[in-house]
Amino acid sequence: MKFFEKPSSAQADRVPPGQHIAKGFPVLTYGETPQITPPDWGLQISGLATPRTFTWDDIMALPQRTFTADFHCVTTWSKLDVTWQGVAVPDLMAQISVDSSVEHVLLHCYGGYTTNLAIADFNRPENFLAHTLAGQPLPAEHGGPMRLVVPHLYAWKSAKWISGIEFLAEEVLGFWERNGYHRRGEPWAEERYSDRG
Ligand SMILES: Nc1nc2c(c(=O)[nH]1)N[C@H]1C(S)=C(S)[C@@H](COP(=O)(O)O)O[C@H]1N2
Ligand SMILES: [Mo]
Questions:
Q1: Residue-level pLDDT at 1
Q2: pLDDT score, position 2
Q3: DSSP assignment string, the chain
Q4: How large is the average pLDDT for residues 13-37?
Q5: Per-residue confidence band for 8, with pLDDT thresholds at 50, 70 and 90
């Protein structure tokens, strides 16, 4: 009888310092869960890029891929091998005309949440927009109908109910980053909190 999840040694190598493996898939949301249906959903491109709004059908017309990724919340739980389906960020970026001065993005969400990323942390082949979790339509509490997943950073960067990408030359901090979290959030370096005092 196992009362807690003790990772095997192979799994332990994948759990960053200060993290433990969660049971199930916890939900971590600041505020209310927005209720958005696919026909209501859109992704607005703004800032230093040609403005455009991607509809649900626009995203579905892009290459659909399956991703298996580990998920690390800064509150110390991790979940390994989460299976998602969606669109790789570079496949989306290929559809967007971005100014050469762009260095950062600020991601916007239904409900008002924001989070920031350097463009090099955003436009990576392992990052994706997800609409399916474990073979089922992404539940609203996990960010459905559409969220971002950025596996290599703490999960507060994985914007749920994503509604927009703002392209920027200078860094603009998002919600948690303004409220004491680290501007980058790399779990292996335990970049949990801001060093800005
Ligand atoms: N829009 C939005 N996205 C969000 C959050 C949020 O509160 N609002 N929470 C973040 C945090 S702190 C984490 S750990 C993950 C949690 O995703 P989950 O609820 O699917 O586990 O979503 C991230 N994305
Ligand atoms: Mo989190």
A1: 46
A2: 52
A3: --SS-PPPHHHHTTS-TT-EEPSS-----SS------GGG-EEEEEESB--EEEEHHHHHTSPPEEEEEEEE-TTSEEEEEEEEEEEEHHHHHTT--B-TT--EEEEEETTS-EEEEEHHHHS-TT-EEEEEETTEEPPGGGTTT-EEE-TTS-GGGS-TTEEEEEEESS----HHHHTTB-SS--GGGT--B-S--
A4: 97
A5: confident
For residue 76 and ligand 1, the question of a CB distance below 6 A is answered with: no
Task: Tell me which CATH code domain 40-189 carries.
Answer: 3.90.420.10
Identity at 65, one-letter amino acid code: R
Cβ of residue 29 lying under 6 Å from some atom of ligand 1:
yes
Closest residue by Cα to atom 9, ligand 1, is 29
Domain ranges of the chain: 40-189
* CB 155 less than 6 A from any atom of ligand 1: yes
Q: How many residues does the chain have?
A: 197
**Distance from the alpha carbon of residue 28 to the mean position of ligand 1, in angstroms:** 5
Distance CA 5, CA 95 (A): 42
Look at residue 177 and tell me whether its pLDDT is greater than 60. yes
Model confidence at 167, pLDDT cuts 50, 70, 90, reads very high
